[in-house]
Amino acid sequence: MKTTSFELVSRDYLIKHFKSKFLLVDNNLDLKTELNDARFSLNKGRHSPKNIVMWEGYGLIDDNRKEKTGWKKYSFSESVWLDLILKLKKFGLHNKTLLPVIDMFCENNDNAKISKYPLLDFYIKLIALEDTQVFFLTDFRANSVLITKEQLDSVELTSNYEHEDMLKINLSSVVKRLLEELPIQIN
After folding, report:
1. 80-134, pLDDT tens digit by residue?
2. Would you kindly state where each structural domain of the chain is located, as residue ranges?
3. Given CA atoms 86, 88, 92, 98 in this order, what sign does their dihedral have?
4. Which residues have a Cβ under 8 Å from the Cβ of 187 and sit 6 or more positions away?
5. Which end of the chain is least crowded, N or C, by CB within 10 Å?
6. Could you tell me the pTM of the whole model?
7. Distance of CA 126 to the CA centre of its chain
8. If pLDDT is split at 50, 70 and 90, which confidence band does 177 have?
């Protein structure tokens, strides 16, 4: 997948809204705190503990327990990531190919040191508060990008755009389903 077309169309938007606003220390503190509070148990109907341990071994998720005893708890953002991993695995992506996705989510540091996955948190905010349609695009090598529907449409409508094989996951549906399941306060 040639992600450059998708990255170019979203670059200015991300610079203006994500890097210049969302990552600032005093911006969105309540939202970041709410999205990153590890208080939810694993949904064993969707995720097997065996897979969780395996994904921890590959570095896809962290065991955030202080003494590695007791029940594991996950934040809302981690729950979104777990559901996204599950979807990607169903399409055959290997654990090692998913590591660049985490790098993408963590590439920019949250100045407030709250967000574990700042880019994912930013798009969760767009979905939850602004009702923006967001997609996760990837290829079998995990060249990935998060993109809004409007940005995706603008790339695909250009005259020189070539449709390539890629996986498109509706991140909005993942987030909205979890918003119904997990009690969080987003304003």
Report:
1. 999 999 998 888 888 888 888 888 888 888 888 888 999 999 899 999 988 999 9
2. 4-181
3. negative
4. 30, 31, 129
5. C
6. 0.87
7. 12
8. very high
pLDDT one-digit tens code per residue, 29-47: 888 889 999 888 777 777 8
The confidence band for 1, taking pLDDT boundaries of 50, 70 and 90, is very low
**CB–CB of 105/121 below 8 Å?**
no
Which amino acid is residue 148, in one-letter code?
A: T
Q: How many residues does the chain have?
A: 187
143's CB contacts (< 8 A; 6+ apart) are 1, 3, 100
Copy the structure tokens of residue 104: 């993408």
Query: Is pLDDT at 78 greater than 70 in this prediction?
Result: yes
